[in-house]
Design goal:
The complex is a heterodimer of chains A (about 220) and B (about 475). Chain A is built from 8 helices and no strands. Chain A has about 220 residues and is an all-alpha fold. In chain A, helix 1 runs parallel beside helix 5, helix 2 runs antiparallel to helix 3 and helix 4 packs antiparallel against helix 5. Chain A starts with a helix and ends with a helix. By secondary structure, chain B is mainly alpha-helical. Chain B has a domain of about 210 residues. The longest helix of chain B is centred in the middle third of the chain and has 36 residues. Chain B starts with a helix and ends with a helix. Classes of the chains: A mainly alpha (about 220), B mainly alpha (about 475). At the A-B interface, helix 4, helix 5, helix 6 and helix 7 of A face helix 5, helix 6 and helix 8 of B.
Chain lengths: ~220, ~475
């Protein structure tokens, strides 16, 4: 029984990781939002399973926040935003999908190599969940670096944040998980409102967040 | 005794929180500016009580010698900046750059920022500290974008995204610290509270702590503005209102640094974990040298001083990375002096930009003739920041350099190289702006010089004579830092 419980948790965390890979190569914004919805649903299931396994009722609240806020409200408002901004048919040019996927695989390997020995003494469930979570966080970062469009960068950030919630839920009996997921939801709400209010679209199209010199140009 | 103190430390959080609501309800901007000044002043007075009453802690707050230094410094600069901000905002409303609704929002955010920073400094557990740092980031993002120009929005957006990635990484590190502590301290709050964490640190899984520290260093290091995660800092300083540049450089960078220092202490307590020093030294030197080179090509006055902040945060991270009583003492002193001096520089820069109607260095000339008071204070500020005697920064930089020479002479070479580079760059820019034929003014500025003079005289006094109990106090903290 114990083994089955752990297996189910791993299947869910693994599915979350696979969905992160799907986000990496998806070049249509509407497709990206659909995959993000799937990401959030799997996260919610995964957190709910942790709540069941750890017998921690407060985690059900985190799962509910993930389901309602991330899988319903956020995709709905993002879809409306890209329609209003008339970018819902945009096909983004992503350079080198093959290389990005290879880097992604490398990052997953890296997080396993780093996390598994470090957590050797921890609970077997928490141990592999945290390795998966780190991989999801790193893939989210990779997505933010490879994308130019503000909406896809946001989706990258939200997938990164899902990885963090998975890690926090996986840490046995960690307090403040609900508070932290609420704090993150507020942050994300701000980001989404920001995109909408300030029509952030082309203005940041050529902003590579980690290489700012080009934009700085005349006003250094 | 402890209940008194609990009241005091709660007041440090509650006053700004109540004031934030109060200013949001007051429609008239002059009155809200007065409330802003009074609330910041009251917070500062309460922080002084912490100096007298023996520190003891309870509940979700925690006071020890280390965070008292940070709290007193940040409430003091918060207070002087609120005085400065009142006259700055007056001018912005007269010239129509801000509306009174903007200002209402601005004041509410200012007090929320003070509240979040005090909470981050006093929080007794690592989760609450993380939430407070996140709130502080959000409020400053909103203030940076307040002018609503394309450049301001872009700066706010960049700051937002990089800051969010930073705090996300910091959260991952926080979770890992909990997971390292949980087998020893058991499930629940105990494994997140500083006090129990510090006392049980030697038994934690060292490999887990190592991984955690890398994330915490990168995460909170982004907020400190260390290279290569500094990209948000110059934009945020240049495009927001100048009082916010002063608060960012003088306070928020320190708060993030405080988080790094706390976790550094945790790792130092565990003998089997990596020593956190070398990582901090590497990031510190990288920031110092990168920023020193970048200073030469700046054309915007606020960006110039923003890069100078990166440079100094590099020096401070370097000093704390070196560790030991002397280097820690130097780092603390340098942090205090830099906060005071840099905010004073931003006070004068804000009024200068208002008087000249531009932030372009090339269009600002002959300040000492056209605006003698502002011009000479800028000269004094820059002379202080580049580390000329007899001012305070000279002393702290001298201590950093000499303690490095004594222990790691090879590291002193890049350190001194970076310091000299920055010295040259700032002096070069200063002579262009301060002397020569003056460029025309676009308007009259009713500058409030009091906060500026207060900061500069403190820096001068510290350079000439450090009172004995300040020295012993800093020495205690330096010992605490290990």
């Amino acid at each position: 029984m114990e083994l089955l419980t752990i297996d189910i948790a791993h299947v869910l965390a693994g599915a979350l990781l696979l969905t992160s890979f799907m986000l990496l190569y998806q070049d249509r914004l509407s497709g990206l939002i659909n995959i993000y919805t799937l990401h959030a649903v799997i996260l919610s299931l995964s957190v709910a399973w942790q709540a069941h396994y750890q017998d921690a009722p407060h985690l059900y609240l985190t799962a509910a926040i993930a389901a309602i806020f991330k899988a319903l409200i956020i995709p709905f408002s993002l879809r409306r935003i890209i329609e209003r901004l008339r970018i819902h048919r945009t096909v983004e040019v992503i350079g080198g999908v093959g290389i990005t996927m290879l880097i992604g695989i490398f990052l997953v390997a890296l997080s396993l190599v780093v996390m598994l020995p470090a957590t050797a003494s921890a609970d077997p469930l928490a141990r592999e969940d945290i390795a998966f979570a780190l991989a999801i966080v790193l893939l989210g970062l990779l997505m933010m670096v490879t994308r130019r469009n503000a909406v896809s960068q946001i989706i990258g950030f939200m997938s990164l944040e899902n990885g963090l919630v998975l890690a926090a839920a996986g840490a046995n009996g960690m307090p403040l998980v609900v508070e932290i997921s609420v704090a993150f939801s507020i942050l994300i709400a701000f980001i989404v409102i920001g995109i909408f209010l300030f029509r952030i679209r082309e203005r940041f199209d050529n902003v590579d967040l980690f290489e700012l010199d080009r934009v700085r140009g005349g006003r250094s | 005794m402890s209940s008194d103190l609990f009241l005091v430390s709660n007041a440090l959080i509650a006053i700004p929180a109540v004031a934030a609501i109060a200013v949001a309800l007051v429609p008239e901007y002059r009155r809200s500016a007065v409330i802003n000044v009074c609330a910041s002043g009251a917070t500062f007075l309460f922080s002084l009580i912490l100096l007298i009453v023996e520190p003891e802690s309870g509940g979700y707050l925690f006071v020890d010698d280390l965070n008292i230094v940070f709290v007193v410094l940040s409430t003091f600069i918060g207070f002087t900046t609120s005085v400065y901000s009142a006259s700055y905002i007056d001018h912005e409303i007269e010239t129509g750059r801000l509306t009174s609704t903007n200002v209402r929002f601005y004041h509410a955010m200012y007090q929320s920022l003070m509240c979040a920073m005090n909470l981050a400094l006093l929080a007794s557990n690592i989760g609450l500290m993380w939430v407070a740092v996140e709130v502080a980031t959000l409020t400053t993002v909103l203030m940076v974008g307040i002018y609503r120009t394309p450049h301001a929005l872009e700066a706010a957006w960049k700051y937002f995204i990089l800051g969010s990635v930073g705090i996300a990484l910091a959260l991952f590190g926080t979770i890992l610290v909990y997971m390292a502590a949980e087998p020893v301290l058991g499930q629940g709050y105990d494994a997140m509270v500083w006090k129990t964490l510090m006392s049980q640190a030697p038994q934690f899984n060292p490999r887990m702590l190592n991984v955690a520290f890398v994330f915490l260093m990168l995460g909170y290091g982004t907020k400190v503005g260390l290279a290569p995660m500094h990209a948000w800092l110059p934009d945020a300083h240049a495009e927001g209102p100048t009082p916010i540049s002063a608060v960012l450089s003088g306070l928020l960078l320190n708060v993030a640094l405080y988080a790094v220092l706390r976790f550094k202490m945790l790792l130092t307590a565990n003998a089997a974990a990596i020593t956190p020093g070398p990582l901090m030294i590497a990031l510190g030197l990288a920031s110092l040298i990168m920023a020193a080179f970048m200073l030469y090509r700046r054309t915007d006055i606020k960006r110039l001083f923003a890069y100078s902040s990166i440079e100094h945060m590099g020096i401070i991270a370097f000093a704390f990375g070196m560790g030991g009583p002397l280097a820690n003492f130097a780092g603390l002193l340098h942090m205090t002096m830099h906060s005071l001096t840099k905010s004073a520089i931003f006070f004068s820069v804000g009024h200068i930009a208002q008087a000249k109607g531009t932030q372009k260095i090339a269009d600002i000339r002959g300040l000492t003739q056209s605006q003698p008071a502002l011009g000479w204070s800028l000269v004094a500020g820059v002379v202080a920041i580049i580390g000329l005697p007899p001012l305070g920064i000279f002393m702290s930089e001298f201590l950093v350099v000499s303690s490095t020479f004594a222990r790691q002479p090879l590291l002193a070479v890049p350190l001194v190289f970076g310091l000299l580079l920055a010295f040259g760059a700032l002096l070069l820019r200063l002579t262009g702006m301060a002397f020569g034929a003056p460029s025309p003014d676009v308007g009259e500025v009713k500058a409030s010089m009091l906060p500026l003079y207060a900061h500069l005289s403190l820096v001068l006094i510290a350079g000439l004579y450090l009172p004995a109990h300040v020295v012993t106090w800093f020495q205690n903290v330096a010992r605490l830092l290990g």
